Amino acid sequence: MTDHYSALGLAAHASLADIKKAFRQKASFYHPDKNDAPDAAQRFAAVQKAYEVLSDEAARQAYDDNRRRNLLDDPLQTAQEIWQTYTHNILAP
């Protein structure tokens, strides 16, 4: 499961204003025309998808419900995914 909050560098309780601000910053940074990194286009797409989901109230609610359900269904796998995302974000420039 993709962590949209992590893609934008936000906590799950972020406001819509925080989501918009983070999207503008991340999209500007990872835009393929401005960033020569080999994974810039992929990260830009992830930021766009995260914004699409989190800025829509119904989609965000469904996403949050699914996240909570996944944490309860398979906590070990969820913990591994969280740590992989966390370490990737720390080690990636």
Automatic annotation (TrEMBL):
Residues in coiled coil: none
Molecular-function GO term, any one: Hsp70 protein binding
InterPro entries: DnaJ_domain (IPR001623), DnaJ_domain_CS (IPR018253), DnaJ_subfamily_B/C (IPR051100), J_dom_sf (IPR036869)
Annotated J domain residues: 3-67
Listed Pfam families: DnaJ
GO BP field: cellular response to misfolded protein
Protein name: DnaJ-like protein
Species name: Acidovorax temperans
